[in-house]
Amino acid sequence: MALSKADGKWKLLVKHRAGSLDTAFATFRLRTMAISFGVLLVLALGITMLTVSTERARVLAKLQMEFAMGISHELRTPLTVIRVAADNLANGMMVNAQHTQKYGRLIGDEAHRLTDMVEQILTFARTQSPRRGSDLSPVAPEHIVRRALAVCGPALREAGMEIERFVDPGLPLVSVDENLIVDCLQNLLNNAVKYASSGGWVRVCAEAVSHRDGAFVRITVEDRGPGIAPGDLPHIFDPFYRGEAVRSSQIPGVGLGLSLVKRIVEAHDGTIEVKSSENGGAAFILYLPAQPVEVPAEAEMKEVTS
Ligand code: ADP
C-alpha cells in the first residue's frame, strides 16, 4: 500500500501480495476450483462405491434365490420318491418280499442321492472361505488318481464306459488337501457318467509339465460324450449353472460341481481349463503346482495301466 500527494489530493493504492488484483482473483479461482474438484471426486468415489456394493448385494440376493430354488427343486424329487415308497410300504401294498426289497433299494438310492447333494452343498459352503494351507500335505498325483477311480470306477463301468488311466512315472508331488482334490476328480468322473456315457470311454491322465509360471502336474479327465455346447462353455464354471440341454432332462444335479472344482483348484493356486470339440468329447484339465523338484519340460506320457 502506498500514499501519494500528486495533485494535492490523496491517492490510495492497494496492492495484493500475489501481484495485480486479476492475478489474485485467478489464483483464488484456481484454488476454489481445485477444492470443488476434490469434493466432486470424493462424491463421485462415494457414489461409485455405493453403486458397486448395491450391485454386489443384488447379485448375491439373486444367487441366494437361485440357490434356494435349485436346492428345493433337487430335493423335491428324491423326497417324493422316498415318501411314496414309504407310504406304500406302510400301507402294506407290497405283494411279496421282492417288491419290498425293490422299494427298500429305491429308498436307499434316493437317500444316497440326498446325502451326496448335501455333501456337495457343504463342500461348497466350506470352500467359500478356504483355510489356505491348513490341510495341505505332499501327495503323489498317482495316489489321487487311484483314489478317485476306486470310488468312481464301478459307476463308470456300470454305465458301460471303458476306463483308461495314464500316469507319468516319477511325477513330482503336489501340495494339496488330498480329500478336496480327490473330490474334484470324482466330480469330473461323475459328470462323465452323467453326461458322457454315450461315448463309452473316459481317460484320466496325469503328467508333469513346466512353463514360465513354474512346474505343474496336469490332470486331465477326457470323454467322448456329446461335449459342451458353445453357448454353455463360458458359463459351466458358474455356481448353479446347468447346460441348456440338461436343464429339461432327468439328469440329477444342481450345477455346483464344476464351480466347486474350480474354486478348490484355485484355492491350491492351480487352474482349470475345459476343451470341447465340434465333434463332441469334453476334456477338463487341472493344473496343480508341483513341489519343487527337477522335471522335464514336457514329459513323455507313459501308459501305466489301462
Ligand atoms: P451339474 O452336473 O449339477 O449340472 P456341474 O457344475 O457339474 O453341475 O456341471 C455344469 C454343466 O456342465 C452340466 O449341467 C453340463 O451341462 C455340463 N457338463 C459337465 N460335465 C460335462 C461332460 N463331461 N460332458 C458334457 N457336459 C458336461
Quaternary form: single chain
The bound ligands are: adenosine-5'-diphosphate
Tell me the overall shape.
elongated
Q: What is the number of E strands?
A: 10
Radius of gyration from the CA trace? 33 Å
What are the secondary-structure elements, in order, as H or E?
EEHHEHEEHEEHHEEE
Question: What is the CA-CA span between the terminal residues?
Answer: 101 Å
In the sheet with the most strands, the strands line up as 8-9-7-6-4-10
Q: Specify the number of helices.
A: 6
Assign the structural class, choosing from mainly alpha, mainly beta, alpha/beta, alpha+beta, or little secondary structure. Answer: alpha+beta
Percent of residues in β-strands: 15-25%
The largest β sheet comes out as: 6 strands, mixed
Helix content: 40-55%
Assign the CATH superfamily of the domain at 137-289: Histidine kinase-like ATPase, C-terminal domain
Look at the structure and give the mean pLDDT: 86
- Spans of at least 5 consecutive residues with low confidence: 299-306
- CATH topology group of the domain at 137-289: Heat Shock Protein 90
